[in-house]
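HOLO CASE FILE
Compound: calcium ion
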Amino acid sequence: MSQAAAGVTAVVVLAAGGGTRMKSRRSKLLHELCGRSMLSYAITAATSLEPDHLVVVVGHEREQVSEHLAEIAPYAVQAVQEPQLGTGHAVRVGLDALVELPSEVVVTYGDVPLLTGETLAGLVAEHRAAANAVTLLTSVVDVPTGYGRVVREHGQVSRVVEEKDASDEERDVREINSGIYVFDAETLRDGLAELRTDNAQGEMYLTDVIAHANRLGRTVGAHLIDDPWQTQGVNDRVQLASLSKELNRRILVRWMRDGVTVLDPETTWVADTVDLAEDVTLLPNTILRGATSVAQGATIGPDVMLTDVEVGEGAHLVKCHATLAVIGDGAEVGPFSYLRPGTRLGAKGKIGAFVEAKNAVIGDGAKVPHLTYCGDAEVGDGANIGAGTIFANYDGVTKSRTTVGKASFVGSNSVLVAPVTIADGAYVAAGSAVTEDVGPGELAIARSRQRNIEGWVASRRPGSKTQQAAEEAVRAEKGDQE
Ligand code: UD1
Ligand code: CA
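Model generated. C-alpha cells follow.
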C-alpha cells in the first residue's frame, strides 16, 4: 500500500493470551467494537502493510479464534502456542510457522483495536530510515500502570522493564512500550533463542530482545506517537466500552469530514461497516449497524436503529427500528415503526406510526400510515392502506401472501385474510374481513349491515342520563321543526 511499507516480509499478530477479565464464554478477541471483532481491526492494520506472510499466534479459546480467522483472513497462517509461556515464546512459535526466515518481522497484538495501518507504516518507515535492529512503538501516558516502561540511557532506548520487575524510579517513567515492534529478523531469532524466565512473572519476555540487540551493539529506536489510544489494549469490558466510544467518535469525525451532519456525536453510533453519502443528517440516538447504507440527503433520527438497511436518497426516518429492509428514495418511515426483514418500501412511500412490516413489498408512493400489521404482502404503487388494517398472514399452520393492487384503497380497520388478492384499482370498505379476491374497480364490503333499533334506550335504560339526553334531542328536533 504505502511506499514505506513495501518489502515487509512478515507480520506476527499475538493472539494466544487469555481474556479472563472479560468474564465471557466468548474469546476476548471476538468481542466487537463498532460492529467488528477486536481481532479484525488487528488483521486490517496488519494486512495494510501487504506482508508476504501474516502469522497469527493462537492459543486460548483456539477453536473460536481459528474459526473466526478462517472467515476474516483465510490467507493468515495460524500458529498454535500451547502452553502460553509469554510474548517472547509466542513470537518464537510464530516464526517457527514460517518456512524461511524473513528479513523483517513486525509484531502486533490482536487486542489493540485502535492501532491503524498508517501507524504501522510509520513505524516501519522509521525503522528503515534509522537502520535499526529493533524499533518499538511507544507513547507517553499519564498513568503508565500495567505497561512495560521504556528505559533510556542518554536518550537511547536501552531496555524495557515490566511493571512487576521495575524499580520505584523506573515505575515513574511515563513512556510505555505498546508491545508493537519491527525487528530485524536475525536479531529477533537470536534474541528469542536466549530468552530466560528469571523474572517476576516466570515468562519469556519478548522485551528482553531489546537488551539483547543493545548487547550486540545494534541500534534500538522508538517510534513515539502522540495518540495513546492507538496503543491501548482491551482486557476487560470497561476498557472495551471506552475504546468503543473513542472508535465511534473517530468514525463519526471521518463521516463529518466527508459531508455528513451529526447533530449529537455523543448519542450517535455508526458501525465501521456502514456507508453514508454526502448530506446525510444523523439526529440524536441513531444507531446504524451491519451493512447499512444511507444515500445522499437522507435524514435519520432521532431514535432510530437500522441493521443491514439500505436507505434511499432524501428519505426520512424517525423513531423506528429496521432490519434487512430497503427504503426507497424520498420515502418516509416513523415514528414508532418496526420494519422486519424483507420489507421494501418504494420511492416516496410511507410507513407510519405503529406499523409493523415483514416480507412486504410496498410500492412507489404507497402508504401504510397508521396502526397496521403488514406481513407477507405486496402493496402496489400508490395504494393506500387505512388505519388499523391487519394483513392476517398466518392461520396457525401456514403463512400466506396478500396482494393489494395499484392505487387500491383499503378502508380502516379491515382484515385481509391471506391468501387473498385485491386487484388494481379496487376498494375495500372500512371494517371488512376480506377472505375472497376483489376484482378491478370493485368495492368489497365484508361486514354485516347496520340495523338501528328504535326506542331501545327508553325500554332498556329507563331513567338513565342517556335516556334524558335522547329525550332532549328528540324535543329539540321537534322544536326545530315547529
Ligand atoms: C506486554 C509487554 C509490555 C507492554 C504491554 C503492552 C512483554 C513481556 N511485555 O505486557 O512491555 O507494555 O504488552 O500491552 O512483552 N500473548 C500471547 N502468548 C503469550 C503471552 C501473551 O500470544 O504467551 C499475547 C496476548 O494475547 C496479548 C499480547 O501477547 O495480545 C500481550 O500479552 P500480555 O500478557 O497482555 O502482555 P503484558 O503483560 O500486558
Ligand atoms: Ca496486556
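CASE NOTES: The longest helix spans residues 237-257. The chain is about 20% helix and 30% strand.
CLOSED: yes
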